[in-house]
Amino acid sequence: MLKVGDKLPAGSLSEFVEVEGNGCSIGPNTFDIEKATAGKNVAMFALPGAYTPTCSAKHVPGYVEKADALKAAGVDEIWCVSVNDPFVMGAWGRDQHSAGKIRMLADGSADFAKATGLTLDLTTRGMGLRSNRYSMLVVDGVVKTLNVEGPGKFEVSDADTMLVQAKQVLA
Q: Whole-prediction pTM value?
């Protein structure tokens, strides 16, 4: 399982891009994780699924609300990662008003979740293999903080915890 001090696993994530520019076309675009985190401070949070109750009511809204404070603390980008396709993540991002604040990244086949070892098996609920709920602060591709939630919990991966950690680590 991924731990503090580890480099993020190699691979890619996808994002639905709304506006063409910066080498990205409109629609789903795939990004290399290593290149996308190089030289950046990234507050990343992952969750089991788009449009699910806790994720939609608390997790994403908290990061939308705290986006400016996180950036003021030295965070370059905020990433939300979920085992969904980029179309769903794009639609969910529009519904959550995350544009310009959070990159809504799709891990469609759970490859990133599997590579981190932070998976959640929801097969009995008809949702298959998903990402566990967690947050991490990543500096130049290296995990500096990692906050993994217990089953059914939402206590340590929230935006307030990430903000405190960003202020400590990036000061």
A: 0.93
User: What is the set of active-site residues?
Assistant: 55
* pLDDT grade for 171, boundaries at 50, 70 and 90: confident
So where are the chain's domains? 12-169
Q: Which long-range contacts (CB under 8 A, 24 or more apart) does 130-134 make?
A: 130/48, 130/49, 130/82, 130/83, 131/46, 131/47, 131/48, 131/81, 131/82, 131/83, 131/107, 132/46, 132/48, 133/46, 133/47, 133/48, 133/54, 133/55, 133/59, 133/157, 134/45, 134/46
DSSP state of 52: -
| Domain topology for 12-169 | Glutaredoxin (3.40.30)
Angle (CA) 142 11 99, round 5°? 80
